[in-house]
Amino acid sequence: MIFSVEFIYIVMGIIGLCCSLYTFADKANPRRLLSGLFYFIYSITLLLGSVIPPFYIGLMVILMVLIVGMGGLRKGKYGESSDQQRETQRKRLGSWLFLPALLIPLLTVAGAKGFEGVKIGSLFIFDPKNTTLVALGVACLIAIITAMMLTKNTPQTAIKESRRLLEAIGWAVVLPQLLATLGTIFTKAGVGTVVSDLVTQFIPENSLFMIVFVFCIGMALFTMIMGNAFAAFPVMAAGIAVPFLITKFDANPNHIAAISMFAGYCGTLMTPMAANFNIVPAALLDLKDKNHVIRVQIPTALLVLAFNIVLMYLLVKWEV
Amino acid sequence: MVLIGVALIIIGFAIRLNPLVVVTVSGLVTGLIAGLPIVDIITQFGEAFTTNRYMSILLVTLPVIGLLERSGLQNQAGHLVSKIKAATAGRIITIYLLCREVGAALGLLSIGGHPQTVRPLLAPMAEGAAKAKYGEVPEEDREEIRAHAAAADNIGLFFGEDIFVAVGAILLMKGFFDQNGIEADPISMALWGIPTAIFAFIVHSIRLYLLDKKLDRKLGSKAKKDVIR
């Protein structure tokens, strides 16, 4: 294929690597060497992840965590533009400023739908297994070039600005990947079966409402622990939905499926384990409390969870 | 025994240790309790970290967003919104929530996202609307508005996407039922997601309406009601 997902990882790695060079050189950062090393290692894992043996990547990950644990990751100075500079540029460009930002979603959708499975000769244009991801990467590259031309800035400025944003996110940038790692270790260690055994113990077998209640709450809780509703569904469905709801109460699987997944998503909204959705955005938006997004989401999540329980109960009951 | 790892996570997050450290320690401990050799655990760390590199995709969006911010993108977003009299923080986020949810239901999952849409566009628009309405907005309220902007992206995405038939979640469930010899139909599964999707939208729009009311109560007295530059 012409644009593979590995190509996107290389672009990500190069951006990170260039950012880390500026961090190494940032005299305003009291721990510039350690901070630079953090972003440097991170970039190497992105850039060479498929070349370096996993054991060494694992060691590098642990080293990054140690740097953060010792307080070695600090912020520096970024030479931001002044309010006045921004205002002059804004007046000059007006709403053209939106163009590169809008190009990202538009080109991604167009690329993902338009080039899916399209070949030149015998080569796929986009990696057929990861079309959306590759389309997003290519869309960003086009948007980067457009943004540089529009704002008349050099690639160096683009990197400096990226570093400002990257350091604003800080350690949270690796948390999603690390949590995914924890997920695989939990699965290997059999945490899933233990949790589902525990939940199943609470089921009073003859009360339909209680079964639905335990199933939905279980989906949400399990998702909160694993950070991922996809991991929760097979375990909870095999433990509760199939033996009790479908076999015993004759529930229609089509009714149960989406509602139980939504119950899981209610859990996703309430857990720091879903870092990509909850913690990284808090860092990205400069929120002092990293759990602020979760705090905002909890009331909606609980109400929707309650609605799911009632809805599932009624659907199963009316069929009986 | 393996639940010790889960307990470590809960305690670690509760006493606000750095999440990276908490997650790593829990992973190591869980692995050791389960009897995996340390070399295997570290290899596992490396393997999973590498397979999940796609989660760092936001890196490629940073140069675009950074350059545009440097040129006043956020100011322009706020400026545009401040010209619309009816705009309030809550209403703007509600409109976004609707677009995000409908978009996701149609399979357009990549039209939103925190780095590419919320930070450069939605959050400054919502803040700009509040600023136009109330004058200076204190930092804590601006943070509340930004947190709501991020939350709307999640809620719209989550409760919209399962209505789209070809989404991962529906396919995963279909696969699960097939394996267990239970007949299930993806279209019907997706359709039964609609009531919850609508309910989530209603509940969250009401909460955004309440956010506006709260801001009105708190900042309303200072409002420069007719002065809109």
Automatic annotation (TrEMBL), chain A:
It holds the Pfam family DUF979. InterPro entries: DUF979. The keyword DNA-binding does not apply. It comes from the Bacteria. The chain crosses the membrane at residues 6-25, 55-73, 93-112, 132-153, 165-186, 206-222, 229-246, 258-284, 296-316. Keywords: Membrane, Transmembrane, Transmembrane helix. This is Permease.
Automatic annotation (TrEMBL), chain B:
The chain crosses the membrane at residues 24-42, 54-73, 155-177, 189-210. The keyword Transmembrane applies. Pfam families: DUF969 (PF06149). The keyword Membrane applies. Keywords: Membrane, Transmembrane, Transmembrane helix. This is Membrane protein. It comes from Peribacillus loiseleuriae. The lineage of its organism: Bacteria, Bacillati, Bacillota, Bacilli, Bacillales.
